[in-house]
């Protein structure tokens, strides 16, 4: 995606991957970034949900609407937590009991 940035995309790609050669350093960078990326997305999602559940979600533009502000009910936080636990349990059951379903056909 960096290469799509006009004018500086090529320089950013060469800086990030260490050039065009596929050697040990380039592969290490590639695997490190691809390993950390899902954790980064998960952390940003948790931060987003913390602030969303703290202040409410009825004012996405940041307008002054103190009279209409509704706090986020704990029901939604609990519902999100239960949904996340169910999703993780389903993924764990799939991974542990039927791992061959996750392979190539």
UniProtKB/TrEMBL annotation:
<keyword id="KW-0479">Metal-binding</keyword>
<keyword id="KW-0999">Mitochondrion inner membrane</keyword>
<keyword id="KW-0408">Iron</keyword>
<keyword id="KW-0813">Transport</keyword>
<keyword id="KW-0472">Membrane</keyword>
<keyword id="KW-0830">Ubiquinone</keyword>
<keyword id="KW-0496">Mitochondrion</keyword>
<dbReference type="InterPro" id="IPR016174">
    <property type="entry name" value="Di-haem_cyt_TM"/>
</dbReference>
<dbReference type="InterPro" id="IPR005798">
    <property type="entry name" value="Cyt_b/b6_C"/>
</dbReference>
<feature type="domain" description="Cytochrome b/b6 N-terminal region profile">
    <location>
        <begin position="1"/>
        <end position="61"/>
    </location>
</feature>
<feature type="domain" description="Cytochrome b/b6 C-terminal region profile">
    <location>
        <begin position="62"/>
        <end position="105"/>
    </location>
</feature>
<keyword id="KW-0679">Respiratory chain</keyword>
<dbReference type="InterPro" id="IPR005797">
    <property type="entry name" value="Cyt_b/b6_N"/>
</dbReference>
<protein>
    <recommendedName>
        <fullName>Cytochrome b</fullName>
    </recommendedName>
</protein>
<dbReference type="GO" id="GO:0046872">
    <property type="term" value="F:metal ion binding"/>
</dbReference>
<keyword id="KW-0349">Heme</keyword>
<dbReference type="GO" id="GO:0006122">
    <property type="term" value="P:mitochondrial electron transport, ubiquinol to cytochrome c"/>
</dbReference>
<feature type="transmembrane region" description="Helical">
    <location>
        <begin position="30"/>
        <end position="52"/>
    </location>
</feature>
<feature type="transmembrane region" description="Helical">
    <location>
        <begin position="78"/>
        <end position="97"/>
    </location>
</feature>
<dbReference type="Pfam" id="PF13631">
    <property type="entry name" value="Cytochrom_B_N_2"/>
</dbReference>
<dbReference type="GO" id="GO:0005743">
    <property type="term" value="C:mitochondrial inner membrane"/>
</dbReference>
<keyword id="KW-1133">Transmembrane helix</keyword>
<dbReference type="GO" id="GO:0008121">
    <property type="term" value="F:quinol-cytochrome-c reductase activity"/>
</dbReference>
<keyword id="KW-0812">Transmembrane</keyword>
<comment type="function">
    <text>Component of the ubiquinol-cytochrome c reductase complex (complex III or cytochrome b-c1 complex) that is part of the mitochondrial respiratory chain. The b-c1 complex mediates electron transfer from ubiquinol to cytochrome c. Contributes to the generation of a proton gradient across the mitochondrial membrane that is then used for ATP synthesis.</text>
</comment>
<dbReference type="GO" id="GO:0016491">
    <property type="term" value="F:oxidoreductase activity"/>
</dbReference>
<dbReference type="InterPro" id="IPR027387">
    <property type="entry name" value="Cytb/b6-like_sf"/>
</dbReference>
<keyword id="KW-0249">Electron transport</keyword>
């Amino acid at each position: 995606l960096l290469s799509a940035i006009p004018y500086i995309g090529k320089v950013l790609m060469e800086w990030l991957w260490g050039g065009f050669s596929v050697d040990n350093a380039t592969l290490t960078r590639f695997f490190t970034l691809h390993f950390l990326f899902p954790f980064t997305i998960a952390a940003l999602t948790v931060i987003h949900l913390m602030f969303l559940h703290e202040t409410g979600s009825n004012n996405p533009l940041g307008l002054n609407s103190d009279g209409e502000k509704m706090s986020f009910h704990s029901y939604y936080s609990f519902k999100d937590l239960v949904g996340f636990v169910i999703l993780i349990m389903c993924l764990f059951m799939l991974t542990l009991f039927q791992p061959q379903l996750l392979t190539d056909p």
